[in-house]
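[User]
If only I could read C-alpha cells as easily as an amino acid sequence. I have put the entry right below:
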Amino acid sequence: MAELYELPIIDAVDQEFTCSLNDKRCRFRVMFNEWSGRWTFALWIQDVLVLTGRRIVTGVDLVGPFHFGIGKIVCMHWDQGNLEPDRENLPSGRVRLFQITE
C-alpha cells in the first residue's frame, strides 16, 4: 500500500534538509531562482550528488526517470486547483512536495 510523506519546505529561497526515504539517507537542496521564477532541487543519496537543477513542477514523478529507489517525489496542489509551485505557493503550503512509497 502506498504511503504519502510531506517533504518540509520553508519560506527561504535556498534551503536544505535531510531525510530518510526508503531507508536511504537523502539530502535535498531546494532553491528558488528569482530570474526564472522557478523552484529547482539538488539531491544527494548516501552523500553522493545524484541530481541537480531538477525543476519542481506539479503532476509528475520528479525522480521517476532516474530509478533511485527512493519512491516517487511529486509536487501537488493542496489548497486550490491548478496552482503553480511559485515563490509564494510552495512555501505557504498551497502547493506541497511529497514522497510516495510503494
User: Anything to note?
Assistant: Strands lie at 3-6, 14-21, 24-33, 38-45, 48-55, 72-77, 95-101. The longest strand covers residues 24-33. The mean pLDDT is 96. The longest helix spans residues 89-92.
